[in-house]
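Entry 12.
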Amino acid sequence: MRRLPFALRAGRALGKTRLGRDARGATILEFAIVLPVLSLLLLGLLDLGYRSYATSVVQGALHDASRMATVGSYSLAQIDARVKARLSNFATRSTVTTTTTSYYDFSGVAQAEKIVGDTAPLNAYNAGDCFEDANGNNTYNTDRGRDSTGGADDIVRYQVTITYPRIVPLGGFMGWGNTQTITQNTVLRNQPFAGRSININRISVAANGTVTQC
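Predicted 3D structure (tokens):
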């Protein structure tokens, strides 16, 4: 077998050694590998920070609304307009919904209307059962609250929900939605700005919708 000339063999060995020790371009390659992960992390932090800011704005609007509701001198329409105006300035493409529910006392918040004449199957409402119609709508409800700001000394739960588009395009990439929704609520007692009275009817509603006193 013919051996290569010494000069050629030495040149090849020198070339291999230099190539093995040449690190030019390695930093760019490493940066290209890390960049997508780093960008995703930064965009996620930005999205999370913006959501925290939006939550604080919603809470501020909610506190304003609850203070207006408890003094009894503002209508529900005025309170809703105040909240929507404040949040619309925060996010022009947002959708804002408000819900106001009043109760007689704290123990009744988000509780079903009381069944006083239960029929089989027991421990569940059935057509014809006698119940306390706390909100006066002639219908059994799993939430006894009334859709109003209530009267003096009543308990009011005010809820604000805002839906707005994400500020960074992470929704499709991460499998999330393109919008975010924030819901905040608070429960307060109205001021004793007037006398207080309560009148709760006990009724039963037949399957055909007939309402009778019981």
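Annotation: The first strand starts at residue 95 and ends at 103. Residues 11 and 17 are 10 Å apart (CA to CA).
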